[in-house]
Batch of 2 targets.
Target 1
Amino acid sequence: MIENGLFDLTGKVALVTGAGHGIGKATATLLAAAGATLVIADKDFTAAQDVAQQLGAAHQAVSFDLASQTSIEALFAQVADMHERLDILVNNAGIYPRFALDDVTQAQWEQMQHINVWGCFVVLREAARLMRQHANGGRIVNVSSIGAARTAVNDQVAYNASKAALDSVTQSAALEYAPHGILVNSILPGAVMPLDPRPKPAAHQPATGPLLSSGRMPLGRPAHAHEVAGPILMLVSAAGAYITGQTLIVDGGFSVT
């Protein structure tokens, strides 16, 4: 339990998507440590189950596919059945394949926008609907990327566009949901360990670009996942009670170099 009352989430129900690995797993772990009851959602259900088992019996794993609106709606039906409420959403799931600007196809572009923008929008909308049912407000954090604000990695034009769109959704949702006490923010990580996706696709090439160039991270290293989870905890706790519609960059200083 975190002793400082500003960060106490006791009695809160939190949904973290993409919580089987990386930032999502670290965030679920930290929110549980702060007292929240977690719904751990991931397309990789085995990984979600492993996280739930590590956190304890109060926390549930749910399988869902961000590419399917039917699956997203089923996820929220399960959350409602299990808890009848939702206080916190960390909208973390997404995809991040790299496509060279000259070679990206319409199908690749549309898949990226469908999952990272439309899918995340539907998750946000369904979460807000459940939050409004109990008139207790809520917190939504969209996990974006430094690529939405600064071109950081090569071959990410489609990905960067999707995350910039998600940040625009954040601002619109923050405006429209404020009367309901629902605060909506984006967090923009820079480089986070591990630097490349797992599992790596065939013919995988290591990422390159300014973010990964020598001297471009003043703090001298990529973030660990828990160093992104910490600011998320701030935004969803009492410490973030007067913050909405913002894009919080967590990039080790890359954006000022």
Target 2
Amino acid sequence: MRDAVTFTAEVLLPRLTVHRRQGRVAVHPTCSTEALGATAALIVIARTVADEAVVPEAWGCCAFAGDRGMLHPELTAAATAPEVADVRRLEAEGGVFGAAVSANRTCELGMTRATGMPYVHVLELLERATRP
């Protein structure tokens, strides 16, 4: 059994044509992509559709933890502070991110709240980039 991100990177990606490059993309790996060994696939997809895909060095668990981030936003704020600082540094050094991706909806919610940038699932970004 393979994760959707891994399946897409291994099976679908070679069959797709990228029509629209997505500029500079921030990538937030997740606890689950790490546990599933799917982080490399997440990054491969992001790099395929973007001019530049950047994983902040300080990325880590967003602490959204299902509904915890909705009930206790201070957990997410504290957990993401180093990554948010890293994202801001990367923007200052290399320019604004045109998109931000992850591979888990609650992580996307937490990172959107933490950074103010809209995080979407990497497969959504892939769909946009490959749409004729």
